[in-house]
Design brief:
By secondary structure, the chain is α/β, with parallel strands linked by helices. It has 13 helices and twelve strands. Helix content is 36%, strand content 19%. Helix 10 packs across helix 11. The radius of gyration is 20 Å and the shape is globular.
Length: 325
């Protein structure tokens, strides 16, 4: 059986799609499983041993230069790669018009079908028009976790039950020498997020960092934008021994997570990677529903807060100390 998964972005969503792959492999061990993903996340999907071929797409970049000759040539090459195989099943677990169009471009084997979501979950970006490209649409509950949503789509099409804990099947990232990486155990704060409402107060980050530093565990502060870098520098100036990291490529950020003694982070992709690895992780929810993405598959992951109900500093501190212990 040849299977194609279309899940192009974003970072956290790509991570949450991985247990679907492990489910398929467990029930169909000889299946060929390919994945269409944004070029920025190729290295992450490559860490999943169950994926046979990765087909990169560059929708984000192509939109900016749609009429250039180079972009048109890249689109033609992508379409040729996508249609090089005949697939028995093509899954779109994102439920957007753009991903359903990619699904439609793939070539089906005789009797093959295209399968996607029949409905949105609460607050998702699902686009109902995507269903016109489906041969089968799988209905999910209104409050279905992001991981289970993808697992249910595959289970519904392939005739098995999506049960058991989520298996992300993530291998360790390539081991490279990183000058900024401490030799001793360290904590990571993923304090930055694009939406201001999802942020936790700087005073609470400082108090938490000071408490962790008092345990002789240094705090590392990555960032993803100039504004986040400024916040990291402000936090570091008040947390003894804290270190602001350089700009990190994705695999360096994954290595940062992989080697961490503790990860504390907001509802962001790198925090979800830490949870997927079952690293000791405190996930902080301030402005998004916890049920959608919380790490509920491991006792090493503690989820605090909810939409409109950020956790207190004492709650996060107690969770962090319990994981350090």
């Amino acid at each position: 059986m040849k299977i194609l998964i279309v899940r192009v972005s974003s970072l956290g969503d790509v991570v949450h799609n991985m247990p679907m792959v492990a489910d398929i492999r467990r029930h169909y061990p000889d299946a060929q499983i390919d994945w269409v993903v944004e070029e920025a996340y190729i290295s992450l999907v490559r860490l999943n041993a169950h994926v046979d071929q990765i087909i990169p797409v560059a929708l984000r970049r192509w939109r900016k230069t749609l009429w250039s000759a180079i972009t048109r040539a890249e689109i033609v090459a992508f379409r040729q790669q996508l249609r090089a195989r005949h697939y028995d099943l093509v899954f779109d677990t994102q439920g957007l018009l753009k991903t359903s169009v990619l699904m439609r471009m793939a070539r089906l084997a005789p009797g093959g079908k295209r399968v996607g979501l029949a409905n949105a979950t609460e607050g998702s970006g699902y686009e109902p028009l995507s269903r016109i490209f489906h041969d089968q649409s799988i209905k999910v509950g209104l409050h279905t976790h992001a991981v289970m949503r993808a697992r249910l789509v595959a289970a519904g099409a392939l005739g098995y039950v999506a049960d058991g804990d989520a298996d992300f099947a993530l291998q360790a990232p390539p081991q490279t020498h990183l000058d900024w990486m401490p030799a001793s155990p360290y904590a990571v704060f993923f304090h930055g997020t694009a939406r201001a409402a999802k942020q936790w107060s700087q005073e609470q980050w400082v108090a938490l960092g000071q408490a962790i530093a008092a345990r002789a565990v240094p705090v590392l502060l990555p960032w993803g934008s100039n504004d986040e870098k400024q916040v990291a520098q402000l936090l570091a100036s008040q947390i003894p021994g804290a270190k602001v990291l350089p700009a990190l490529p994705l695999m360096d950020a994954v290595s940062l997570v992989w080697r961490a003694r503790l990860v504390v982070g907001l509802d962001t992709g790198l925090t979800h990677i830490a949870a997927a690895y079952c690293k000791p992780t405190v996930e902080i929810y301030c402005d998004s529903p916890r049920w959608k993405t919380e790490g509920n598959w491991s006792s090493a992951v503690i989820n605090l807060g909810d939409a409109g109900l950020p956790p207190s500093g004492d709650e996060v501190l107690a969770a962090a100390m319990s994981l350090l212990d």
